[in-house]
Write a structure and sequence with these properties.
This protein has an 8-stranded parallel β-barrel with strand order 1-2-3-4-5-6-7-8, surrounded by 5 helices. It has a single domain, classed as Divalent-metal-dependent TIM barrel enzymes (TIM Barrel). The protein is globular, with a radius of gyration of 17 Å. About 45% of the residues are buried. The termini are close together. Strand 4, helix 5 and strand 5 form a beta-alpha-beta unit. It is built from 10 helices and 8 strands. The protein is α/β, with parallel strands linked by helices and about 270 residues long.
Length: about 270
């Protein structure tokens, strides 16, 4: 299993080569780019080419991109609606699809292998209509991503439409065999449980999001700071899924200076297989 760092750790900073250098020094073999405009502006040709040039000169590879959650530069704080591919209103779904495709188009230069997408937000409910919207969104994205060499991975969240069971229902209903799942272990820990998530998703798991919590809130803690049993989790994964990459997706705190982060990233990777 290769070790990957999500740039979610630097979400409040503009992504630049110095941060990617930090990831490489910390032992990251791969990177997941978090597509938030204030962090990585996927609409800026200059910014895209700057990051692409770094990857072209580094052994670290761009494993994945996390699709945008908001279309603005403030993560919705100024009132911009969330990017919601299964919103009940068609115009919202169209706007969301356009935003995700803007980020996906950067694969022409960045050559990432996977796009991790959220289907909806925490308020969404499950229904036949939700299944239809989810299936349509993933089918459309897959058609757009395939010529770019990108695989779509739907992430399990904390909402009813994105439980492992419902994600599998969507994928099976649409015969979406090329699409996989990004198993977010932190989200599984506060919903159905990690064991059930792994047993349900099995071979559909194409990537992992690794972070910890205490079983109540989506805290994005460092592994070992919460309640997840990491040795048991990876033993179970070894039996039921073939996962090539584990993506460390941590929330930075105010006291996390860059030298401190390097040490913490190394310690976190040491816990992984």
């Amino acid at each position: 299993m290769q070790h990957c760092l999500s740039t979610h750790l630097f979400l409040k900073e503009r992504l630049h080569p110095g941060l990617l250098d930090l990831a490489e020094r910390s032992g990251a073999q791969a990177v997941e780019i978090f597509a938030a405009r204030q962090h990585f502006d996927y609409t800026s040709r200059e910014h895209v080419h700057e990051i692409a040039a770094w990857f072209a000169s580094s052994p670290v590879f761009p494993w994945s991109m996390h699709a945008p959650l908001f279309p603005d530069y403030e993560m919705g704080r100024a009132g911009a609606p969330m990017v919601n591919l299964i919103h009940p209103d068609k115009s919202h779904r169209i706007d969301a699809m356009d935003e995700v495709k803007r980020a996906l188009e950067t694969a022409e230069y960045l050559h990432f292998h996977n796009l991790v997408v959220h289907l909806g937000d925490k308020e969404d409910t499950w229904s036949p209509r939700t299944l239809e919207h989810g299936l349509t969104a993933l089918e459309h994205l897959d058609a757009f991503a395939t010529p770019l060499g990108v695989r779509i991975l739907a992430e399990n969240l904390t909402s009813d439409p994105t439980t492992p069971e419902h994600l599998i229902q969507i994928l099976n209903a649409g015969h979406l065999d090329r699409i996989g799942v990004c198993l977010d272990l932190g989200h599984a820990n506060i919903t159905v449980g990690i064991r059930e998530a792994i047993l349900t998703l099995g071979p559909r798991i194409g990537s992992l999001h690794v972070h910890d919590n205490n079983g109540f809130r989506d805290e994005h803690l460092w592994p070992g700071q919460g309640s997840i049993d990491w040795p048991a989790t990876f033993d179970l994964l070894a039996k039921h899924a073939s996962v090539p990459v584990a993506v460390l997706e941590i929330a930075k705190t105010l006291d996390d200076t860059h030298p401190v982060l390097e040490a913490r990233i190394r310690d976190a990777f040491a816990l992984l297989p």
